[in-house]
Amino acid sequence: MSLHWFSPPVSVKTDQPGAIYNCNNVEGAAAELLKWSKRGPHWNRAVRVCMACLADQATAQEVRRVFRLAAKEEGVLREGH
């Protein structure tokens, strides 16, 4: 299975103190989304767009955009990284 890459990466805080994850593909974004707890409207949209991308119905760049919004909603987005 090939990964669906996007650029630039979205930097998010992880559950490990001080650790940052630079997410640059749809599969990684989907896995990260499943670890989050708030699961608000942006999270729901990000999950749907990830699934659409894996079914060739959305682009990796669309996933990047909604994943970034979901990370901000979750409070884990690292701005400027």
TrEMBL record:
Q: Which Pfam families match?
A: DUF982
InterPro entries, per database record: DUF982
- Gene3D superfamilies, alphabetized: 6.10.250.730
Q: Which organism is it from?
A: Mesorhizobium captivum
Q: What is this protein called?
A: DUF982 domain-containing protein
Q: Which domain of life is it from?
A: Bacteria
